[in-house]
Amino acid sequence: MSGSLPTRRKGSGAAAKVLVAVVVVVVVLLGMLMFVRPSTASTGPDQVALHYKGGAFSSKRFGDCIAPSNRVFDGPGDSHFAYPSSQTNYVFDADQGSDGGQITFVTRDGIEMAVEGVTNFLLNTSCEPIQIGSTRYPGGALQRFHELIGNRYVAYMTDDGQRSDGWRQMLNVYIARPLDTAIDRAGQNYTYTELYTDPLKKAAWEKDVLEQLPELVNRQTDGDTEFFNNFAITLQKPEPPQAIKDALVKQQEAVAKAKAAEAEAAAREAAANAQIAVEKAEAAKINERIKVLGRDGYLRQYAIDHGQNPYQPSTGSLITGQQ
């Protein structure tokens, strides 16, 4: 019996070695799966995504664009960056939940005013290849935007399809600043009363802002590629300081009182003129009757018409005594 013990020990050692080898193989396979697992991306109906190739041991390089409403499976280690293809709104007002605060500007007559509003635009998601100098961008304007701006600000959309904080931060640099400049420049062509009280002047100012905005945005973003387009803007009525508004109210009240006094004076003058016209007509009628009846005849008729007796008794014909 004692002679068989070494044989058993030798067999157990071999089994342990096999078990260890199996465990090592499993661990290696699991580790490989971590590196060879495919990457996936899914775009919504209002998204366009950029696909960048790059495994665990290779550099990142642009692959292709992913159109809206698509799901793709790419190589292990690849990356995907989605951007909105639908309209973007940049809202600026006093609400803390807005994209930006009120914008102030100075009018031609030196009054500082504040305005709220919204500007709408589209991100240029074109993936048509472009050549800028010696650099070719097979992913077009969207690839160039991502590599120059979007990636720096982490402006691409979140995994759940929302616009990120980086996107909003990017807008404050590349949209808000040009918008502020456009509003300020256009405002210098108008007085504060024109913008505050004249709807036509306010509409003209809004149009001036819209005409200047795209060029200022392009200048901010580089200019060689138009990253934003299809701008529209809506500006609320700009507000002057409260002291100016109070002065305008007093001025309008004074004007209203002056107009009321002027209207009352005009009414009195019209009434007087009407009375004069009546009296002139009456005098003309009297003259015509005098021509027909004579002066004494008219006076007698006047007395009769007014209940008087023009034929009073005379003592010259009375019998005053008897003989």
UniProtKB/TrEMBL annotation:
Coiled coil start-end: 244-284
Entry-linked InterPro entries: Band_7
Pfam family, one: Band_7
Alphabetized UniProt keyword annotations: Coiled coil, Membrane, Transmembrane, Transmembrane helix
Keyword Transmembrane: yes
Transmembrane portions of the chain: 12-36
Superkingdom of the source species: Bacteria
Name this polypeptide is given: Band 7 domain-containing protein
Source organism phylogeny: Bacteria, Bacillati, Actinomycetota, Actinomycetes, Propionibacteriales
